Amino acid sequence: MLKEKVIIAERLTKSFGDFIAVDHISFEVEKGEIFGFLGANGAGKTTAMRMLCGLSTPSSGKAFVAGFDLFQEAEKIKKNIGYMSQKFSLYEDLTIRENIQFYGGIYGLSKKQIQDKASYLVEHLHLQHFQNNLVKSLPLGWKQKLAFSVAIVHDPAIVFLDEPTGGVDPVTRREFWELIYDASERGITIFVTTHYMDEAEYCNRVSIMVDGRIEALDTPKELKKTYDSASMDEVFLKLARKAVRGE
Amino acid sequence: MKQFLAFVKKEFFHIWRDKRTLFILLGMPITQIIIFGFALTNEVKNTKMAILDFSKDASSSQLIQKMSISKYFDPTTVLLNYQEVEPLFKKGKVKMVLVIPQHFANDLQHGNQAHVQLICDGSDPNVANTLSTYATAIIKDFQNTLVKEQKLPYRIETDIRMMYNPELKGAYSFVPGVMALILMLTSAMMTSIAIVKEKEMGTMEIILVSPLKPFGVVIAKAVPYMLLSMVNVATILLLSVFVLDVPIRGSLLLLLSEGLLFTITSLALGLLISSITDSQQVAMLISLLGLFLPTTVFSGYMFPIENMPLPLQIISNIVPAKWFYFIVKTIMIKGLGFSYIWKETLILVGMTVVLFGISIKKFKTRLS
Amino acid sequence: MSVLKYLLQKEFRQIFRDPSILRIIFVMPALQLIVIPMAADYEVRNINLAIADHDHSVYTQQMVQKIKSSGYFKLVNYSSTFQEAVTSIESDKADIVLEIPAKFEQNIVREDHASIFIAVNAVNGMKANLGAAYLQNIIQNFNNQIRTKWIQFPPIPPQTNINVSVSNWFNPMMSYKYFMVPAVLATLLTLLGTFLTALNIVREKEIGTIEQINVTPIKKYHFILGKLIPFWVLGLVVLTIGFLIMRFGYQIHPVGNMLIVYLFASIYLLSILGLGLLISTYADTLQQAMLISFFLLMIFIMLGGLFTPIDSMPSWVQKLTWLNPVSYFIDVVRMVVLKGSGLADIKNHIYVIIGFAIFLNSWAVWNYKKTN
């Protein structure tokens, strides 16, 4: 059974002068996968992700995202992806509904679609009492769940998540991942970077970047076997020790 | 003490790394001095004017000639009738029109009396006034050349001496003002923004937990800007002396000490601003409205305070820059000593103490 | 286009939710328009005069009286010693010192001439010049008075006299406010337009929302229009507030058609908003944005003819004025409000300002494309 490939990267490279941040990485991600992108700080994972999102131009290599060429059809890619960064996703000085309205409108949803989505989201996340409050009044965990939901408001093919669960308690993190599972079941591919190793266990497949290169790419189960480790934590430590580039 | 110095060093790095900001902070006094020194003046010269000469005789030509060679006027346009005057003014092409009626030479020769009319564009009343004053002087001068007797009986001769500024250079009045402005900007505004930025980014908490007392932290932030301010003062003085030929007649030491005092006053102001708000944008706008505007308007260097309506004159008394302006002028231009400025210095010291007091109180309440 | 619509909706919501912006838009114009024109007055009056009178004759009394009643001078010190008079200049109590020597009256009548000494505090050159000129004028008149008393003049005055009549157009009461208010309004608009735009965009940079925009299908031109349009609208609102203050606060009735000013302002706003946009591409932090804006605007405004006339500037500076958008706006507002200038009169200004708008915005857009 041939599964559709939503991300194809071939020798993707990004260098800043002499410094090669991302060193000719190649990998593929299948539709509906929850793909974990791991690595120490400075390993190049954020840079790699930014390239795939269209936020940064690769120095060389090829990539196809959602079936579109990264270099030639960047605009089409943007219509079909979602993004959530650790720094920010929602406008704090707008209400929940207004944020949904904005992003829905930007991605071309009709007024009715936006209405429906908004009602659905608010209910699903139990935010009925807050829907007309400014986002800045929400606690961090709820903000993040909301941010994720808004990032996929237009049912994109892929959603890129950059360390989405930073600073949140384990219960909320667990709830966040429930949302991710939901999305994956609906056919949305999840591309997530994180350095919480337990979250790595939730992914279908995981890649580990060290010094700009992908040192390992497999399911968590296989990785633990290959590296003779009891947890992803151990796998990561074993690989990271080889790193030349520190923080 | 060591911790304090560590903080100061960190703040220096912040500023040093931000080359754009640094460049502007150091470059601003230079540009201001150059602009003020070479570009801004109320003096009139080479003013474009038009001539409406109905006589076109020898005398009218002589008069027009006299206008041309004067450095104040530049007769560029010749009009043919009255209707042309208004459109010319509306286009903004000339500021004044000299109207010489018919039979000008004749009237002078045979009746010893003639009339001319000056029509001025009164939009800028000051310029209009000055132009008509100078033009009248030239005309009277022309008149005098027609007078047969050179020496009239019963003469009062006036001997005029311009003190402190024999060449009537505008620079003398604005250099002190620029100094006040730049110090305000560097010490007050930049410091307040630096502190508020820390608050906004949330790193304030980190600093407050450090072993250094909160007030020490704030002062540590201020020190680099104070040093920058003094560098700016030096720049301004150097430029004034060597580029603008404005001397420092009084004691340099006294001048620098007063400069330091005012820097601290500005610092206190900046502190006050940073204690009122948590947003950089707001801090900036308060600085603009609360510092820059009053300093420019009320210090007395752009507009004479005595011309202002009474309520504004009273307000000018609470603007520190006004007192500093007076002090600098007295030392730099008049070359006088401390005995002439002790009152004003005391006022500045008083203001500084009060401002510090209020800021400290506000800081304490915010932290608790 | 609907993308733009949603973008504008968001921008307007954010602007109106920001209390500091609202305060600025309403408070700043009011403050500046009220304070500056009231304070800004270069007219030379209330010149403080100290007199050292060594003569105490009838003539000196008459002359002093004449000087006092001229309205230009305020007698702050009248003494018999020169030293006292000089001290008053040193302490800034007096601007001019007039010394009348002993035997003044006697000398005029018997020796045919007498000298008066005038010392002027020339720290403020302009005031000194005019002050001295006024004083001399009054003394000259007094001189003529004396002469007339002593000499009977025949019907045809032996002395040639040219009568100069001066009429000032466009500003019947010769009020400096008429001159300042329109210019302050223009300056205000400039400051607000550039500052707000630059600060707004750089703030987004700092918080990180620009990244978010970059991932979405929002195109560069959407983003830029989304920033320009709200502030353009606000700019016109501020202009209106300013006009109301001008019309009802200062009772300045514009002679020309205000619509012309609005038309010009619409294009002008595009250029200074473009400047704000441009600045935001060069600034990484709010601090930088503010400083750069401040620095540039200060230069433009000072050289724009707000406080001192452009005609008084040296010719090389005057040529630079052609590159200064602010000078055009100040000019236009003054011309239309005070002189009733029409579209034809300002067509050059319009062409130039269109050029600026295109240039600045293009540069800004080009810069944006570069930084991804």
Q: Which helices and strands appear, and what pairs or packs with what?
A:
The complex is a heterotrimer of chains A (247), B (368) and C (372).
Chain A: E1 5-16, E2 19-30, E3 34-39, H1 45-53, E4 60-65, E5 68-69, H2 74-79, E6 81-84, H3 96-106, H4 111-124, H5 140-151, E7 158-162, H6 170-185, E8 189-193, H7 197-200, E9 205-210, E10 213-218, H8 220-226, H9 232-240
Parallel strand pairs in A: 3-8, 3-9, 6-7, 7-8
Antiparallel strand pairs in A: 1-2, 1-4, 4-5, 9-10
Chain B: H1 2-17, H2 19-39, E1 47-53, H3 58-69, E2 73-79, H4 85-91, E3 96-100, H5 104-111, E4 113-121, H6 125-146, E5 155-163, H7 171-201, H8 203-209, H9 214-242, H10 252-276, H11 280-298, H12 310-316, H13 320-333, H14 342-367
Parallel strand pairs in B: 1-2, 1-3
Antiparallel strand pairs in B: 3-4
Helix pairs in contact in B: 1-9, 2-7, 2-9, 7-9, 7-10, 7-11, 7-13, 9-10, 10-13, 10-14, 13-14
Chain C: H1 2-17, H2 19-39, E1 47-53, H3 58-69, E2 73-79, H4 82-90, E3 96-100, H5 104-111, E4 113-121, H6 125-150, E5 161-169, H7 176-207, H8 209-215, H9 220-249, H10 258-282, H11 286-302, H12 315-321, H13 325-339, H14 347-370
Parallel strand pairs in C: 1-2, 1-3
Antiparallel strand pairs in C: 3-4
Helix pairs in contact in C: 1-9, 2-7, 2-9, 3-6, 7-9, 7-10, 7-11, 7-13, 9-10, 10-13, 10-14, 13-14
Q: Roughly how many Å apart are the termini of chain C?
A: 23 Å
Broad structural category of chain B = alpha/beta
Strand line-up in the sheet with most strands of chain B: 2-1-3-4
Strand content of chain C: 5-15%
The number of distinct helices of chain B, counting runs of at least 4 residues, comes to 14
Which structural class matches the secondary elements of chain C? alpha/beta
Rg of chain B, please? Answer: 28 Å
User: Would you identify the regions of chain B where 5 or more consecutive residues have pLDDT less than 50?
Assistant: none
Strand fraction of chain B equals 5-15%
Trace the largest sheet of chain C across and list its strands. Answer: 2-1-3-4
Average pLDDT taken over every residue of chain B? 82
Order of helices and strands of chain C: HHEHEHEHEHEHHHHHHHH
Order of helices and strands of chain B: HHEHEHEHEHEHHHHHHHH
The total count of helices of chain C amounts to 14
Q: Can you tell me the residue ranges of chain C where pLDDT is under 50 for at least 5 consecutive residues?
A: none
| Biggest sheet details of chain B | 4 strands, mixed
Spatial gap, N to C terminus of chain B: 25 Å
Q: Could you describe the largest sheet of chain C, including whether it forms a barrel?
A: 4 strands, mixed
Quaternary structure: heterotrimer
The number of domains of chain C is 2
Number of domains as seen in the coordinates of chain B: 2
